[in-house]
Amino acid sequence: MRVALFITCVNDTLFPGTGKAVVSLLRRLGCDVDFPAAQTCCGQMHVNTGYRAEGVRLARHFTEVFAGYDAVVAPSGSCAAMVREQYPKLAKPGSRGAAAIAEVTPKVHELSEFLIDVLKVEDVGAYFPHRVTYHPTCHSLRGLHLGDRPTRLLRHVRGLELVPLPGAEECCGFGGTFAVKNPAVSAAMGADKTRSIMDTGAEVLCAADNSCLMHIGGTLSRQQTGVRTMHLAEILASTEEAQ
């Protein structure tokens, strides 16, 4: 398959290792992976704060950049949900933009969706000998309805002990601009999530969105818990040779 990596702003700017992990993993599974350099922000921040015109412009650019690929894979439930859920609402019905969106958006997948639903694989040949707990981020849980796809993949990782996270479906408090507009509430929600993580005894907290991991990881670090945060892609890309 000819697959394009949609890296997303947060990953490109702050977590480039996640993008590298996606490429390594997909190539290991036989995909021809491309990185369209012209890609930009998907427009989620703009649309969520009322800048609809900018969102329309960015949606148009997205469809131009990613046209022609068999699939577009994003290591972010949040940004994948933006493209699939919000783009169709931004286009004028019957317009060329609407047609382009209808063509491209069904091919956009969050990583675990792509692995399980498209490649039909659950065991990706990973090895990660650590105690791990998984946080289902809000957009991946409520927007994309990923369900147990990420944990099914984690259960097939050799050496990995997956432990359930109490209150897993509760928001961590990040919410993009929510954390900026409501910092005290956001911090309190992050502290609640951190306590739940500590109750698991896990060495590593895993999620499908680095934005949420950044938020939770800040609290974990400030409290000197010793718990690491890792994106799902980085765990799935790990092999025994790389340990």
From TrEMBL:
Span of domain Cysteine-rich: 3-83, 132-216
Superkingdom to which the source organism belongs: Bacteria
UniProt protein name: (Fe-S)-binding protein
InterPro entries: Cys_rich_dom
